[in-house]
Amino acid sequence: MAEVKKEFPNGFLWGGAVAANQLEGAYQEDGKGLSTADVSPDGIMYPPSEDPAKLNLYHDGIDFYHRYKEDLALFGELGFKCFRTSIAWTRIFPNGDDAEPNEAGLKFYDDLFDEMLKHGMEPVVTISHYEMPLNLVKKYGGWRSREVIGYYEKFARTVLERYNGKVKYWMTFNEINVVLHAPFTGGGLEFEAGENKLNIMYQAAHHQFVASALAVKASHEINPNAQIGCMIASMTTYPLTPNPDDVFAALQQDRKTLQFSDVQVRGYYPTYMKRYFTENDIEFEIADGDEELMRKHTVDYIGFSYYMSFIATTDEEKLEEATKGNLMTGVRNPYLQASEWGWQIDPIGLRTTLNILYDRYQKPLFIVENGLGAVDKVEEDGSIQDDYRIDYLRAHIEQMREAVADGVDLIGYTTWGPIDLVSASTAELKKRYGFIYVDRDNEGNGTLERKKKKSFAWYQRVIDTNGQEL
């Protein structure tokens, strides 16, 4: 049998990924308005709180707004080929419905992207990542309102035009399917008693699909050479047993995610959702022209996050044995270990996910989030021996290499949180992902000093050898 080549393509985009609201800080500087993240001190799964006495670590983040040059220099030392971040909507349009953009906000990202390019990093930019102007929530009801589509389109066109020539890779929404799991974070949705929540969430999702198509249209008009993708939280599901009921339950669970990529990649609602909408009394407005717009303006590539896999079963007793996960809970897989936060570690699941997505769409894939959140200990000599993080990432990169050998068109890999930042799920700092330690704790104390962990030199070598030395 001939040996199959297992290597990443030339020009593979190695890097790291962050979100503006989780590390920038400076939440009211230079004209920035309040966002949904600014009133979410407990993370994305919790109701908002505007109690000024409640500590919100998002407000100061890790002070990236003032320290980005120092941090990008460290990423440059790592050898990053790209760096994924987002643009804080409220830095550009503080209220969302402002007549004119905020020049100070626009200039900040001009300077940020220039600094990235100086270090040889392609900016990979998410237009909307887990935040939106709070004013659009209070005044219009968030993404349940069709009016928000126009405000998003204005925001998207503003940044696409401003950073044309600097940014080649864009994504329209971060983990767009999160609107079903964390509706305030994903859609700025607040509910009144008696409302059909599913109905409202799918109406919001439809508005985001239309907005995403408008952003794709704008991107292709402004710079046909740029690439603009969708981004989904991908969570491959296995059946607990060979029982056909479990197998079909796993299919149904995966479809709840895949419907979001189906619409943005294929350009229409999948037929399997019609029954789901009927059985759950889901009715939402599709305006004239929406379907044509979505069909004409599909994404160039598929970005996705991958942290874990899930188990599906129809056995009610097993369903009570839930384990934690990214946005969702599921049945514990007896064959897998889990992180300190209960997230099940499944590297082969990443290869499976890559193959499923590529078989389904035949479009380039980009892993834009993958990593291990853990409590890191600073040793007496000042070192941070995070071998567990190295083991996690090595195992996942090995499976990425296998997927590329399978024929998957994979264009890049950005680990989540290359520098410690505020966790989205729990809004804490003790859950660390980075190759770079930041001296700040859950109470907001610390010097903000940056310190390299053991994994820093390891990832540096991985990038330098294009994934051959792990």
Describe this structure in words.
The protein is of the alpha/beta class and 470 residues long. It has a single domain, classed as Alpha-Beta Barrel (TIM Barrel). It has helices at residues 20-23, 64-78, 89-92, 103-118, 134-140, 147-162, 183-187, 197-222, 244-266, 272-279, 290-296, 316-319, 347-361, 387-405, 454-464, and strands at residues 13-17, 82-86, 122-128, 169-173, 227-233, 237-239, 301-305, 310-312, 322-323, 330-331, 337-338, 344-345, 365-369, 410-416, 436-438, 450-452. Strands 1-2-3-4-5-7-13-14 form an eight-stranded parallel barrel, surrounded by six helices. A two-stranded parallel ribbon has the order 6-8. A two-stranded antiparallel sheet has the order 9-10. A hairpin with a 5-residue loop joins strand 11 (337-338) and strand 12. The two termini are 25 Å apart. The model has no long low-confidence stretch (mean pLDDT 95).
Which key features would you list for this structure?
two-stranded parallel sheet; globular; alpha/beta; 470 residues; TIM Barrel; eight-stranded parallel barrel; 15 helices
Low-confidence stretches: none
Counting structural domains, the number is 1
What is the CATH topology classification name? TIM Barrel
Number of strands: 16
Named CATH architecture: Alpha-Beta Barrel
CATH class: Alpha Beta
Proportion in β-strands = 5-15%
Rg, please? 21 Å
| Percent of residues in helices | 25-40%
Keywords: Glycosidase, Hydrolase
Protein name: 6-phospho-beta-glucosidase
Active site: 369 (nucleophile)
Pfam family, one: Glyco_hydro_1
